[in-house]
Amino acid sequence: MYVGADYYPEHWPRDRWRVDAKLMQEAGFNVVRLAEFAWVNMEPIEGSFEFDWLDEALAVLRKHDISAILCTPTAVMPAWVARKYPGTLAMTPNGQRIVWGVRKNNCFTSGAYRLLSERITRAMASHFADTPNVIGWQTDNEFGGPVCVCDTCRADFQDWLRDKYGTLDELNRRLGTHFWGHKYTTWGEIQIPVAPGNGWRLAGRGRLSTHNPSLCLDWQRYYSHLNVRFQRDQVRILRELCPNHFCTHNFMGIFSDLNYYHLAEDLDHVSWDNYPVWHKPSISYGSAAAADVMRGLKRKNFWIIEQTAGPGGWSSFGRNPRPGEIRKIAYQQLAHGADGQVWFRWRTCTAGREQYWHGLLGHDGKPLRRYREAAQTAKEYRKLASDLAGTTIKADVAMIYDYESIWAVRIQPGFPDNDYHEAMRRYYDALFRAGVSVDMVKPTEDLSQYRLVVAPDLNILPDEVAKRLSDYVSSGGVLLTDCRTGVKDETNLCHDRTLPGLLTDVLGIVIEEYESLDDETEHRIVGKQDIEGDYTAVKYVDWTTPQTAEVLAAFDQWHLQTFAAATRNRFGKGTAYYVGVIAKEPAFYDQLIADGLNTAGVSPILAPPEGVEVSVRQGANKKLLFLVNHTEQQQTVPVPSGKRELLTGETTTDSIALDTYGVAVIKL
Ligand code: GAL
User: Fold this and answer.
1) Together in a domain, 554 and 591
2) Among residues 138, 261, 363, 392, which one has the fewest Cβ atoms lying within 10 Å of its Cβ?
3) Residue 192 domain boundaries
4) Are 429 and 475 in a shared domain?
């Protein structure tokens, strides 16, 4: 089990390195991540490399038994790169190149940038291949920006489209360019569909591109491919020169400008950056969901490679993690499958844009409260290591997490507030409250291992995926899906079938009409059968006509009385739910999820009080139950008795008390 911090020896005098390494060792740390922004320190002049300082830092760390993950430093180009090769800087939609001086400012099709990136990667990899305490590599830093609209990118996008569609006729047909007379007669006429003033994102709230939505989707796919290709060029070199090191990247959890499934393909494991301490303390549903997305990318455990260590902010800073919170944040990730844990950052820097992004140590470099809490956590992790070895989450419930639908909804939300992640969280949070683990999976995953599959806002539904969902239900699975599912095909054209298209028989419903609701309009919905209580539909309603399906919630509103708000349908050996509304009350989703779990025969391991998270990591002949108290109140949780709680060594009775931000790990 690796535990440590992100460390920047280049920020501090050399005589401090020994002090830092010793403090890390005393804290129980055994790993650091180094050098992701240190390109100019390693190649101060083009083609002339200086690694002595990093050799020395690594040697100091090694004396204290600390291993290192090195980074390819391409997230910040040296000033000389921008000066000598201005085409390496990304061009913004207003036609100007980014002004050098921030980070993530390169164009990914610039030949010069790609060559320079390969050269520094090769130089680092050959120099550090045999350094004993180097164990792995992080590529770049947080891929995902900027978007460049230069002529090289446009020409490369045209080539990518040519590879994809083969002929212009095919492209015109698939992208539906008959609309608004947008037919292309040569490849060179194709534009990047980003409108001036649209910022660097293609689409997002309040700044939608009004280009052809199918071209927009292809541009988003192409942009993702550029990042994946750039990383692949580096990984190829790292694999060739450092075959014994692992390769990872620091993903950003719920970040969806890239297809993270693709970005993860070339790596050994996924790592991610978790910053949940903002605003008022609250239950960390978001970090739980993000962890499950991260574990789903390669369907294996992940690392946290940047973990909140203190108040964060680039200009002004947010709140300080309260006593116990740093440890609680770490345990939540451990419970979701983290196999490595690195705090960002070791010491708060005294210069630059992140002077107020606080580390475990403050500006003064003293090992105070936050350091002590991380040290406690690191020591506990060491104690748990042998029990944790070989364990991961085995979920009965999957949620389909689909970048293509996320993009389609962003490009054309349909109803104004349609937000994929909000849709996902309606069900995810209910599963969290029920104490049930979730695997996040791609739409083409083999679903047969799951008893319940939730597919929120699956806007893009290729026929192949519809068929998989249908087969899954007919052979006994339980599916729950909702508003706007299956509206589009894979080229972002509306299907020309009555909704829900190929899922009509599975869901046992027909949707001939639907509408958005303005902010003032709410409709009362009334639970039927296994759903109890009254709820409020907001934002959007499907006018769902049940055919073979039973009604689980009905409308009060006169013009919607013949339609269902939620349905359940037996199909083959399985059952399929459809939710054609957005309810204001989380309790509506708690009820639906409870019914879905019941139908699927999934029983939560225990019923946690609100704010206590439950997760199980298991491996050959072992099962560890994690309890994480996200609240500031003491909580009492019913648990199996006669088991060993591994942190205290005590034997459980039929309940356990968790302090403010308390955690427990019970060996079942
Ligand atoms: C991350 C990034 C780090 C640091 C941190 C705090 O997104 O990878 O380099 O900038 O945020 O701002």
Assistant:
1) yes
2) 363
3) 151-218
4) yes
Q: How many CA atoms lie within 13 A of 282 on its CB side?
A: 10
The total of other beta-carbon atoms located within 10 Å of residue 310's CB is 24
pLDDT tens-digit series, residues 286-315: 999 999 999 999 999 999 999 999 999 999
Q: Mean pLDDT over residues 6-19, rounded?
A: 98
pTM above 0.90, yes or no: yes
Contact 120, 42 (CB under 8 A): yes
Q: What is the CATH number of the domain that holds 619?
A: 2.60.40.1180
Domain boundary among 600, 635, 654: 600
User: Is the dihedral angle over the CA atoms 202, 207, 208, 209 positive or is it negative?
Assistant: negative
CB 116 within 8 A of CB 107: no
Ligand 1 contact via 251 beta carbon (within 6 Å): no
The verdict on the CB of residue 17 being under 6 Å from ligand 1 is no
Assign 387 to helix, strand or coil: helix
Nearest CA to ligand 1 atom 9: 141
Six token digits for residue 167: 């002929």
Residue 95 lies in a domain: no
Assess if residue 592 is contained within a domain.
yes
501 and 618: one domain? no
What DSSP string describes 571-623?
ETTEEEEEE-EEES-HHHHHHHHHHHHHHHT---SS-PPTTEEEEEEEETTEE
- Structural domain tally of the chain? 4
Range with the lowest mean pLDDT among 227-236, 277-286, 490-499, 516-525? 277-286
Looking at the structure, tell me whether residues 124 and 269 fall in a common domain. yes
Do 176 and 281 belong to one domain?
no
The closest-lying atom of ligand 1 relative to the alpha carbon of residue 250 is 8
Checking if the pLDDT of 196 tops 60, the result is: no
DSSP classification of residue 225: H
SS3 content of the chain, % helix, strand, coil (to 5): 35, 25, 45
3-state SS of 92-106 is CCCCCECCCCCCCCE
What CATH number is attached to the domain comprising 548? 3.40.50.880
Amino acid at 157: F
pLDDT(59) > 60: yes
Q: Please indicate, yes or no, whether residues 473 and 502 belong to a single structural domain of this protein.
A: yes
What is the token pair recorded at 649?
């060594």
Q: What digits encode the pLDDT tens for the residues 643-655?
A: 999 999 999 999 9
Active-site annotation, residues: 142, 306
In a domain, 259, yes or no: yes
107, 190 in Cβ contact below 8 A?
A: no
Taking CA 271 as the corner, what is the angle to CA 407 and CA 149, rounded to the nearest 5 degrees? 40
CA atoms within 13 A on the CB side of 228: 16
Domain boundary among 367, 388, 409: 388
Query: Is 6 close to ligand 1, i.e. is its CB under 6 Å away?
Result: no
**Angle, CA 290 vertex, CA 379 and CA 293 arms, to 5°:** 110
- Residue 208 sits in the same domain as residue 225: no
User: For ligand 1, is residue 306 a contact (CB within 6 Å)?
Assistant: yes
In a domain? residue 379? yes
Residue 356 CB-density burial (10 A; 0-12 exposed, 13-18 middle, 19+ buried):
middle
Contact yes or no for 613/287 (Cβ under 8 A): no
Ligand 1 mean position to 195 CA, how many Å? 29
Contact 342, 3 (CB under 8 A): yes
